[in-house]
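Input:
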Amino acid sequence: MNFELNFPQLLRNELFINGEWIAGNDRFPVYNPADQQVIGEIPNASLQQIESAIRSAHMAGENWATRSGMERKKILSKWHDLVIEHEKDLARILTIEQGKPFREALGEIRYGASFIDWFASEAVRNYGDVLMPTRENNRMHVIKQPIGTVAAITPWNFPNAMITRKIAPALAAGCSVVIKPSEETPFSALALAYLAQQAGIPNGVLNVIFNIEPWKVGEVFTTHPLIRKLSFTGSTVVGKWLAERASANLKKISLELGGNAPFIIFEDADLDRAVHGVISSKFRNNGQTCICTNRILVHSLVEREFIHKLKRKMTELTVGSGLERGVDLGPLINIKALGKISEIQKDALEKGATIEQGGQLKKGLFYEPTLLSGGNRSMKCFTDEIFGPIAVTYPFNSDEEALNLANSTDYGLAAYFYTRSIERVHRISEGLEFGMVGVNTAVISDATAPFGGIKNSGQGREGSRYGMDEYLSVKLVALELHPVE
Ligand code: SIN
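Output:
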């Protein structure tokens, strides 16, 4: 397929190992979810190539770790500037392989670039500590050193930003990286790697591989003696599988896994703002983000008014190919995703939910933005991550009931609530068992903020100064002075 880029060199279809672009005969197809046509082919990395990527990263990492923070900052800043310079081409690639509307894809490129920018600045702020020892003549200080070679596995729903959110802090900290991005969306990853190379990231410091049997890569990443850290974004099932293996080998691990975000609308909420919040968090990326609203809990006093307002706004949403102008919702990623949401809707209807809006497949992988009311705890839409454009409301009658419903999940990534009461702002945000809470806002993602969850949603944080710590090890240096005679 011709991607019609202004800068066609961005479109790579090779592996990237030790600064070399490696083509291979064993290739797999990549599809455009908007028309399900093949848009290109990518090499399937052999076990030897994965091994070579890890060894290259290890060797290149030794030198990278000794570079000054200022030097790393300059290279990362150059990478950031190149990403911004090519943002339109990168967004076009992203839309073609992932499906999200071009405007949203452009937003993701800028969001992704913001992590490079933020961590470029953090590269020069790797502070340690000077301690006050309890023993006379002792001195103690703490330094933070790069953890070593990092392995990363990233998902298809944010083919750009989930990569930069892992790679930028790793590189800023002085680590080298082998990354296995999603096989559904390889072209965004390779374009980023190409720009990293142009920016001066040394050969071997960043390596990109793919394999259509991803568990094979997971097996290598979690057992290889040269890998010191694994960062994974994806499903809870896979995250637990990786964690089991990684912990058997005592590798440091960060996991950003599934979510089941409640969105609570109290009776004193500004309903128009709440509707705006639900639209932006439920339908972002066609409902395919881990922090998408999954359960709308609405006080029964305002339930009907809220549903009426939400339905009106939902009729304004346009579904279509991401390259068409004015489109708000693109296709689902693949047929499996479509099967999952159809099953979730069927289950809810069988258990008593009502369709307020939508509920139909339009064509191909395009699903209508859908609103169901009358949800209850027995439904799959309450317990499972929907990951599609189906919104479900659940009524409640007290703060206690709302909190109980919200926390009745094994997940703990993001939660949102809308209220005008300062009392509730504190009590509810403290009572919600989630890693991130949005109060009167559904926009919580930011390079400066710690992103991550608790319970089955994972461990570790990305973005912010906490995100840098994931790639550093803390070392104590203790010394004893000669006593003064
Ligand atoms: C995700 O789906 O995990 C990413 C969402 C975000 O970074 O805003």
